[in-house]
Amino acid sequence: MKTKEISKSTLQRLPAYLNYLKTLSPRETPNISATALAAVLGLGEVQVRKDLASVSLSAGKPKTGYSVCSLIKEIEEYLGYNNIKDAVIIGAGKMGTALLNYSGFAQYGFNIVAAFDINVTEDGGEKGKKIFPLSKFGNLCKRLNIKIGIITAPASAAQEVCDLMVANNILAVWNFAPIHLNVPEHILLHNENMAVSLAILSKHLKENLKKSKKHL
């Protein structure tokens, strides 16, 4: 399928479509309409049609809708979920270890092969996922041609860790450390800022509580 350029907001909605479609039984629900998807996910019907048109080769048919199986395949192909992508973690604390052992990434074509930590002196880990000394990072990345790095190290060490990843040909960095990182222009950096997420949740909750009090 030819890749189309889509907006960031559309890209963020695609996993929601995919997750819902995968809950449907192909035998019981072989097709689904944009109207039905919009209703279930609380989105506008026009928006859903535009989103699906950006990744689907065929438009939904009147009274029939989209083939669920075909739509799943097309969204997975667009997002790259059908191609396993290997990644490594630097920072084997509680968060790093939890991500390392999380099996759910596989359904998104994502595979964390190992973690590294400065405090590890010998190979360790469980469930087949190893935790290595940081000194082995460069060799493993080169040997396995790793291009995705995840940072769960403390904020004080995050920039140094990021620089190490860039120096070892990592092209995409998923950063969980609560700090701004500087990367070259060709590096894709995504910050998973939990403080921002909590601030949004808190503000939303505060506004809802105010509205509730007004109705009392």
What number is the mean pLDDT?
A: 87
Measure the end-to-end span.
54 Å
In the CATH scheme, the class of the largest domain would be Alpha Beta
**Low confidence ranges:** none
Domain module count: 2
Number of E strands: 9
**Tertiary shape:** globular
The helix fraction, in percent, is 40-55%
Oligomer: single chain
What about the largest sheet? 7 strands, mixed
Q: How many distinct helices?
A: 8
Beta-strand level of the residues, as a percent range? 15-25%
Task: Name the CATH architecture of the largest domain.
Answer: 3-Layer(aba) Sandwich
Topology as H/E string?
HEHHEHEHEEEHEHEEH
DNA-binding region: 16-55
GO molecular function: DNA binding; DNA-binding transcription factor activity
Subcellular location: Cytoplasm
Protein name: Redox-sensing transcriptional repressor Rex
Give me the secondary-structure topology.
Blueprint: H1 8-21, E1 31-32, H2 34-41, H3 45-55, E2 66-67, H4 68-79, E3 85-90, H5 94-100, E4 110-117, E5 124-126, E6 129-133, H6 137-144, E7 148-151, H7 155-167, E8 172-175, E9 188-191, H8 194-214
Parallel strand pairs: 3-4, 3-7, 4-6, 7-8, 8-9
Antiparallel strand pairs: 1-2, 5-6
Helix pairs in contact: 1-4, 2-3
Written overview of the protein:
The chain has 216 residues and is α/β, with parallel strands linked by helices. The protein folds into two domains: 8-79, Arc Repressor Mutant, subunit A; 85-195, NAD(P)-binding Rossmann-like Domain (Rossmann fold, 3-Layer(aba) Sandwich). It is 44% helix and 18% strand. It is built from eight helices and nine strands. The chain has helices at residues 8-21, 34-41, 45-55, 68-79, 94-100, 137-144, 155-167, 194-214; strands at residues 31-32, 66-67, 85-90, 110-117, 124-126, 129-133, 148-151, 172-175, 188-191. The chain has a seven-stranded mixed β-sheet, with helices on both faces. Strands 1-2 form a two-stranded antiparallel ribbon. β3 (85-90), α5 and β4 (110-117) form a beta-alpha-beta unit. α1 (8-21) crosses α4 and α2 (34-41) packs across α3 (45-55). The radius of gyration is 21 Å and the shape is globular. The model has no long low-confidence stretch (mean pLDDT 87). InterPro entries: CoA-bd, NAD(P)-bd_dom_sf, Rex_DNA-bd_C_dom, Tscrpt_rep_Rex, WH-like_DNA-bd_sf, WH_DNA-bd_sf. It is found in: Cytoplasm. Its main location: cytoplasm.
